[in-house]
Amino acid sequence: MAWNNIYFIGIGGIGMSAIARYYKFKGYNVGGYDRTPSDLTRELEKQGIAVHYDDDITRIPTRVEDTLVVYTPAVPEDLKELRYVKENGYRVIKRSRMLGEITEGQKCLAVAGTHGKTTTSTLIAHILTDCGEGCSAFLGGISKNYGTNLLMSENKVVVAEADEFDRSFLQLHPDIAVISAMDADHLDIYGDLAHVQEAFRQFASQTKDTLILKHGLPITSSDTGAKILTYHFNDISADFHAENMHIDALGHFTYDLHHPGGVIPGIRVGTLGWVNVENSVAAAAVCLCHGVSPDAIRKAIGSFQGAKRRLDEHVNTPGLTYIDDYAHHPKELSTAISSIREIFPGRKLTGIFQPHLYTRTRDFAPEFAKALSALDEVILLDIYPAREEPIPGITSEIIYKDITAPRKMLIKKEELMSVLEKETPDVLITFGAGNIDRFIEPIKQMLLARI
Question: E strands, 253-326, where?
Answer without folding.
Answer: 253-259, 262-268, 312-316, 321-325
